[in-house]
Amino acid sequence: MNDFVLEFRTNINKHIHQLREDLKGIRTGRAHTGMIEGLPVEAYGGSMKMKLLELASITTEGNDALVIMPFDPSTVQDIEKAILASPLGITPKTEGHRITVRIPPLSEEQRIKYTKLISQMVEETKNSIRRDRESIRKDIKNMFDAKQLTEDDKFRFEKDIDSETSKSNEELQNIKEKKEQEIMAV
After folding, report:
1. What is the CATH code of the structural domain delimited by 33-102?
2. Predicted TM-score of the model (pTM)
3. What is the pLDDT of residues 143-154, one digit of tens each?
4. Which helix (H) or strand (E) holds 6?
5. pLDDT in tens, 46-55
6. Which phi-psi region, left, alpha or beta, contains residue 78 (left: φ > 0; alpha: ψ -120 to 50)?
7. What would the pLDDT profile of 97-119 be if each residue is shown by its tens digit?
8. Which residues 6+ apart lie within 8 Å of 9 measured at CB?
9. Where along the chain do its domains lie?
10. Where are the beta strands (DSSP E) in the chain?
11. What top-level class would CATH report for the domain 3-24+107-184?
C-alpha cells in the first residue's frame, strides 16, 4: 500500500469519525449520553470552559431521561446554565447535586428538520473527502510529471484512491440511512 492511499484512508477515517461524533448530538426522541457529553460548560465562574463529560458522569434513566452527577457540586449551576443555553431545547431539573434532563418526544416537523440536517452533514463530509482526493491526485500528478512515478504507478494509485472514495461514500450513505431511520422511528 502506498503512502498516498494510506494518507487518504487515514483522512477518510478522521472525517467519518467526526461525522459520527457530530451525529451523536442530534436528538432522536430517546435519551442517550452523546447528546450532551460535548456540551461546553463555563465552570468555576467562567474561568474554565470544559465539556460536560469532563465535569460530571452522565447516565440514562429509561428512554427519556438523562441523569447528570457533577464530580464537583459547585458546578451544578454552571451545568444548568449550559444546558439551558444549548440549542437542544431541554430543561434541567435539579435535586441536590443530581441533575435530571427529560428528553421530549420529537414532533414530525422536528424529525423532518433533523433528517435535512443529517443530509447536509453527510454532504459536507463527502465534500471534505472529495477535496482530500483532489489534493492527493494533484500530488500524484506532480510526482508523475517530475518523473518520480511510472505511468502504471500513477494509474494504480488513482484507481486505489477512487476505490477508497467509493467505499467511503457507501459507508456515509449507510450512516445517513441508519440515523434517519433512528430519527423517523416513533
Report:
1. 3.30.1360.40
2. 0.70
3. 999 988 899 989
4. helix 3-24
5. 788 888 888 8
6. alpha
7. 899 988 877 788 888 888 888 99
8. 164
9. 3-24+107-184, 33-102
10. 40-43, 48-51, 56-60, 65-70, 92-95, 98-102
11. mainly alpha
